Amino acid sequence: MDRKETAGKWEKRWHPLREEWIVYSAHRNNRPWQGADKIKPIAAPLYDPTCYLCPNNKRVNGELNPNYSDVFIFENDHPVVGMDAPDVISHGFYKKQKATGIAKVVCYDPRHDVTLSKMKLDKVIAVFEAFKKEMILFEKDPNIKSVLIFENKGEAVGVSNPHPHCQIYAVDFHFKLVEQQIGISQQHKIKTGKTIFESVIESEKKDHIRIIVENKNAIAFIPFFARYAYEVMIFPKAKHSKLNTLSSEELIDLVSAFHQVVRKLDMNYDMNFPYVMSILQAPVDGQEYPDFRMHLWLQPPFRQPGLIKYLAGPEIGAGNFMADTMPEEKAFELNQLNLADYKYER
To answer: Which of 6, 76, 187, 210 lies in disulfide reach of 103, CB 3.0 to 4.6 Å?
Structure first.
């Protein structure tokens, strides 16, 4: 798409999964910037003796990490929730309850300086297979109602340790965005006979211009209603509400689509591209959620090299997102890249 087609637009688009308007003014991405300094990535060594996630190093609780060679998972030493959370008593109008759950850390690789984009595809598949095994265990735990697998990658999103890792929060309540999407999808199905996710995927396939990767069992696209410049949603094509129901072939295709996307993001600005990655799944509370579709959701903060999309008055103060770029323009950028030119193969 010619950049001139999106220059100077003032347009609002309805976000069907959040039920809110997103306002687009793509010309504002080129406005003069005199704010905070642009963020420059920091190079990491192959091994860091001070890193509490590297093999054989001591963690904050005094335990030594094993000399692991692939995926290493342990319970977080500073968990946000716990199975031994103290009881609390709620009084009056305000409510409070103990924060019950399990928080885990998943180290992808023993090397301190790699990312999922730099790792070979088979290694990334092994990471997602580990996620799948964790989900099987959590689904059997009566204390757990919802599971969020997420990765904060890069200094731009405030990651506390650059070692390649993510976290898993398994909690005793329903995560808000998943609960919201379930309700919206149920209502959409009553009106149309389709889930909201079917309508989104069908619309993206019809328009085609925002699709970044598509294979037999998975599809990745910058959605029509993207809030962040390089926001990408990745879906299995079959109707799966949780990661653990995917077949081996489906999981491989889903991971392959993800791997291609994150490599394209790296290539676009010639850097390890930061993002927040969430794997949104239906609750594991024993109920069926046929109207929900699990998906990977990438929300990279950069709108230009080193310059993040800062959330300010409209987003924080009023609850509506003001986007500086058009989804079609950003999808066009990524689709011009040839993955054969990826420089970070290890």
So the answer is: 76
- Domain parsing of the chain, residue ranges: 16-341
- The two tokens of residue 74 are 């342990």
CA 280 → CA 110, 271, 286, distances in Å?
Answer: 26, 26, 17
Can you spell out the DSSP letters for 61-82? TSPBPP--SS-EEEE-SS-SS-
Burial-class residue 37 by CB neighbours within 10 Å (0-12, 13-18, 19+).
Answer: exposed
Q: What is the pLDDT of residues 186-222, one digit of tens each?
A: 999 999 999 999 999 999 999 999 999 999 999 999 9
Which architecture, in CATH terms, is 16-341? 2-Layer Sandwich (3.30)
Give me the mean pLDDT over the 153-165 stretch.
Answer: 90
Q: Are 243 and 319 in contact (CB under 8 A)?
A: no
φ, ψ of residue 216 in degrees (nearest 5): -60, -40
Q: What is the pLDDT of residues 288-312, one digit of tens each?
A: 999 999 999 999 999 888 888 888 8
Residue 56's closest CA among 44, 46, 68? 68
Asked whether the beta carbons of 256 and 121 are under 8 A apart, the reply is yes
Q: Are the C-beta atoms of residues 253 and 260 closer than 8 Å to each other?
A: no
Classify residue 58 by its DSSP letter: B
Structure tokens, 10: 């003032």
d(CA 196, CA 189): 7
SS3 233: strand
pLDDT digits (tens, 9 = 90+) for 169-186: 999 999 999 999 999 999
